[in-house]
Amino acid sequence: MLDWISEAAFWTIFLILHGLCSIALLGAITHQAFAAFREQGTSKATDFVGRFRGVSPGIYTKAICLLWVMTFLLGGYIYAQYRISIRIPLESAGFWKTQGFFELKENWSSMGLFLLPAYYCMWQDASNQEFMKPRKYLTAMLAIICWFSFLVGHVVNNVRGFGS
């Protein structure tokens, strides 16, 4: 450990970086999912939801892939500390549902990582109508995984966060 920073501060910084990457990912995947399900040929919207859905969905693909990998790697680095500092006390306190949801989060995030190459290939030629439905549903699946992972991670951190 570095002499100029405490261990708690070190892990808190990594948790904040992980959270910032996940929020950026959440915003990008949500924009893309809403835009992917927009009806084709709609005119420019003037309301908030219409403008939210009015982005070009293909432009987010590379950013989403990069953010997913960065968030996954930061989460994997934090995971060792989580196993020692948070998981053991959660199990001792009997928070089995919280622990179970975190296990689902781990597995679903890994499945999302596994789906990224197919997702990237589907969005490479966004004008190809042959892949329109698979592209939509794959994007929706990744958005659901991302939202679930974000919410579960947030809840687990609130139950017993770093420094508790």
Describe this structure in words.
The protein is an all-alpha fold and 164 residues long. It has one domain (7-159). It is 77% helix and 0% strand. The protein has five helices and no strands. The longest helix has 33 residues, at 61-93. The protein is elongated. The model has no long low-confidence stretch (mean pLDDT 85).
What integer is the average pLDDT?
A: 85
Question: Could you describe the largest sheet, including whether it forms a barrel?
Answer: none
Q: What letter string, H or E per element, gives the SSE order? A: HHHHH
Please give the radius of gyration in angstroms.
18 Å
> Which percent band covers the strand fraction?
under 5%
Alpha-carbon distance between the termini? Answer: 20 Å
Structural class: mainly alpha
Poorly predicted regions: none
Number of strands: 0
- Give the count of structural domains: 1
Number of helical regions: 5
Task: Tell me roughly what share of residues is in helical segments.
Answer: over 70%
| Shape, principal axes of CA atoms | elongated
Give a topology summary.
Elements: H1 7-36, H2 48-53, H3 61-93, H4 96-124, H5 132-159
Summarize the structure.
This protein has one domain (7-159). The chain contains 5 helices and no strands.
